[in-house]
Specification:
single chain; 336 residues; alpha/beta; Rossmann fold; UDP-galactose 4-epimerase, domain 1; 2 domains; seven-stranded parallel sheet; three-stranded mixed sheet; 18% strand
Length: 336
Amino acid sequence: MTETWVVTGGAGYVGGHVVAALHRAGVDVVVLDDLSSGRAERVPRGVPLVRARAGDRPALRSVLAGAAGVVHLAALTSASDSVRNPLAYYQANVTDVATLLAAMTDVGVRRLVASSSAAVYGDQGTAVGPAFTEDCAPHPQSPYGTTKWIGERLMAEVGAATGTATIALRYFNVVGAGDAALADHRTGMLLPRILLARRRGTALTVNGLAHPTPDGSPVRDFVDVQDVAEAHLAAVARLSSGWQGAAVYNVGTGVGCSVLQLLAATARVTDGPVAWMPGRARPGDPSSSVADASRIARELGWRARRDLDESVASAWAAMSEAGSVIRRPGSWEAAG
């Protein structure tokens, strides 16, 4: 009998790629998404779409009945927006996770893969070495990071009490696109902002040039969204094998790239310069955030396979083909 997995936020940017990867792998999928920022056209033909919020317990109980597990991606994802509107982030990233876990307990679903974030680490400078391992103590700098950390604890503690196996995937900076229908249209994310500036010939504001990094701009670990989707496949396979417990994994490349280096890569890939101007550092932005991804490689056999130029090229091609319908920062979207 084929197992069915419910994907919350499956019509979002990351969610659309995860659903596509599961669907290609022959996993039966049902998507639950309220479409407040997700797009129905991201859901593959033949995959059921239930329009509901991830905090709607009756809807969750209905769609979860008989499911093998859940991939929970619905969240609010902007660190800077969370500083302005923390209550919305606690509702989406904490209360809704508790509601999901309650609904899973109601109907006896005992497997959960969920998106978390490198934002749980915050800005710890060189105190932890060149990259974050999963054993680094959380030190979030924004309500977004705090809510993701609380969500991880909820999963682990409820899982221990109910016998639910849980895997939290701490994404670093997700970029790229599998195709035009799955393009990232969120203005709160760096690469879409860069590509939009390149396309329009306008100047991008680089937020902060006084960071303790080689060129003064923030350093990030940019991981391709298709690789991220494959990390979810590996996590689903782990849970489907009967593994029990609670695990947390970094999902990144292990390679740092500054914002100015990303601008240079974009100019190289798109064959044209990206104008930019300096701006103030944003609240909640760490100076450096790079993954040590050795644990997920060792335990799940996953490694990022695509390089930055491939990711930029795929995002540029998807934006060019799909057009530019941009959504406001902080809107409902699968995490990324």
